[in-house]
């Protein structure tokens, strides 16, 4: 059995990058969805949820087109940052972000909605500005939703297959994640290795979900 | 003597019914005022307009020499720049902070917060979280927090309505005591005429969206002189 530790490392890095970026991007977006009554909200919200219902290969196909050196985003990154997105780690991070966006967004949106607007009003009447209110009142009172978003997006990114394969291919040490390694071992009828990879992924995912449940149970005094 | 004066017009919706709240008042600072009205009459909206949590359509709010709102001059100070303390109907305590945390969030320093906890008899529960408090303790925490910014105007939105009868009487007395000790201009809104006449120096009713003390006689305005 020749298990390739580097595929785990690629998956782990991908998960961390995607989750970190999503927390930052999704917070203002979730805030706007939850608190703004704009007409644009249902349109953008549906667009952001599209990765939930689209086939990963369809999503991956369109992402490959826009991230390729001839695509809009691919061209932009190449000319501004000199980074090639198609078949690169940066490319699968972007693809992973798009694919896992709905998980983070829905958790954060639910969390923001669960903080009563009276708490914000109370904070404003106590002389506090929006930023201080956000940091000291809103975020601490939606901790469990933030945590749910983080663990869900991380676990979902670890399990990514179609989108990553379409955008990143299977370059060892760069874009070959564990789920692709499982697929390749099965294709070459190497079931022992496939089992090992798959089992480790199951254990990691179970650990994540278990941790989530434990932390939510500990959520204090409401 | 400095005065609190407001004159506000705001369109309200109660179910399908749209009406205009037209409320005005001019009173010396330091008094305990009551506003009485049925539910949906616009009492809470009036308080929210005074605190800048909602924007009236037109009018003005002045306290002493300070103008907080004047639609003709385009002045509308945000809540952070109005010296108000607001006790919300369901108290709106921060669940992630202890009693001390809630009050010192407002005061910015723990020594002043400790004084307020003493004033509101909460020192023994300072380390508890809101979910661990009784209804009366929550109400007093909300009051201590509202006083934390040393406001010039204290707004109380039905602060006793969630409590049982005995507690309502004793906390009402305590509100009255604290108002006397601090000399703070206070507006209490309630649907209970008895509660208001027991606690307040003067009570104004909102009738059909109108609160104009000048057009109500002494009998109809439930006036009480101390």
Please characterize this protein's 3D structure:
- The complex is a heterodimer of chains A (222) and B (226).
- Chain A is mainly alpha-helical and 222 residues long.
- Chain A has 11 helices and no strands.
- Chain A has helices at residues 5-35, 41-53, 56-67, 72-81, 89-114, 117-125, 130-138, 143-158, 162-168, 178-187, 191-218.
- The longest helix of chain A is centred in the first third of the chain and has 31 residues, at 5-35.
- With 226 residues, chain B is of the alpha/beta class.
- Chain B has a 6-stranded mixed β-sheet with strand order 6-5-4-1-2-11, with helices on one face. In chain B, strands 7-8-9-3-10 form a 5-stranded parallel β-sheet, sandwiched between helices.
- The radius of gyration of chain B is 17 Å and the shape is globular.
- The A-B interface holds A 116, 118-119, 121-129, 136-137, 140-141, 220-222 and B 48, 51, 53, 78-80, 82, 84-86, 88, 90, 92-96, 105-106, 129-132, 145-146, 148-149.
Quick summary:
The complex is a heterodimer of chains A (222) and B (226). With 222 residues, chain A is mainly α. Chain A has helices spanning 5-35, 41-53, 56-67, 72-81, 89-114, 117-125, 130-138, 143-158, 162-168, 178-187, 191-218.
Radius of gyration of chain B, CA atoms, in whole angstroms: 17 Å
H and E string of chain A: HHHHHHHHHHH
Q: What overall geometry of chain A do the principal axes of the alpha carbons give? A: globular
How many helical stretches of chain B?
6
Estimated share of beta-strand residues of chain A: under 5%
- Largest β sheet strand count, sense and barrel closure of chain B: 6 strands, mixed
């Amino acid at each position: 059995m020749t298990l390739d530790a580097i595929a785990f490392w690629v998956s782990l890095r991908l998960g961390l990058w995607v989750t970190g970026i999503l927390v930052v991007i999704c917070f203002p977006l979730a805030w706007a969805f939850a608190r703004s009554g704009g007409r644009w909200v249902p349109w953008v919200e549906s667009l952001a949820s599209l990765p939930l219902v689209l086939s990963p290969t369809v999503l991956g196909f369109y992402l490959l087109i826009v991230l390729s050196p001839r695509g809009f985003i691919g061209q932009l990154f190449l000319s501004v940052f000199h980074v090639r997105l198609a078949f690169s780690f940066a490319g699968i991070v972007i693809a992973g972000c798009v694919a896992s966006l709905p998980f983070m967004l829905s958790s954060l949106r639910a969390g923001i909605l669960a903080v009563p607007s009276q708490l914000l009003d109370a904070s404003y009447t106590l002389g506090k500005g929006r930023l201080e209110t956000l940091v000291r009142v809103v975020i601490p009172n939606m901790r469990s939703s933030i945590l749910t978003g983080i663990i869900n997006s991380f676990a979902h990114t670890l399990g990514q297959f179609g989108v990553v394969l379409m955008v990143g291919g299977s370059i060892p040490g760069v874009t070959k994640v564990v789920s692709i390694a499982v697929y390749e071992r099965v294709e070459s009828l190497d079931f022992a290795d496939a089992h090992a990879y798959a089992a480790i992924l199951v254990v990691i995912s179970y650990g994540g979900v278990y941790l989530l449940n434990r932390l939510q149970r500990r959520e204090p005094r409401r | 003597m400095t005065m609190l004066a407001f004159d506000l017009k705001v369109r309200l919706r109660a179910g399908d019914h749209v009406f205009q709240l037209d409320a005005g008042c001019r009173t010396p600072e330091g008094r305990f005022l009551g506003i009485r009205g049925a539910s949906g009459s616009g009492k809470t909206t009036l308080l929210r307009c005074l605190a800048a949590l909602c924007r009236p359509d037109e009018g003005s709010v002045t306290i002493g020499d300070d103008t907080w709102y004047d639609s003709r001059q385009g002045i509308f100070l945000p809540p952070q720049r109005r010296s108000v303390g607001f006790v919300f109907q369901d108290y709106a305590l921060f669940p992630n902070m202890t009693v001390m945390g809630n009050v010192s969030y407002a005061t910015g320093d723990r020594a002043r917060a400790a004084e307020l906890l003493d004033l509101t008899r909460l020192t023994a529960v300072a380390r508890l979280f809101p979910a661990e408090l009784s209804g009366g303790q929550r109400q007093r925490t909300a009051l201590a927090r509202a006083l934390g910014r040393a406001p010039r105007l204290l707004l109380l939105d039905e602060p006793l309505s969630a409590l049982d009868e005995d507690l309502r009487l004793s906390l009402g007395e305590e509100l009255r005591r604290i108002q006397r000790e601090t000399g703070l201009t206070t507006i209490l809104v309630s649907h209970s005429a008895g509660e208001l006449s027991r606690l307040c120096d003067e009570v104004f009713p909102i009738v059909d969206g109108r609160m104009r003390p000048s057009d109500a006689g002494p009998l109809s305005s439930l006036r009480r002189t101390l």
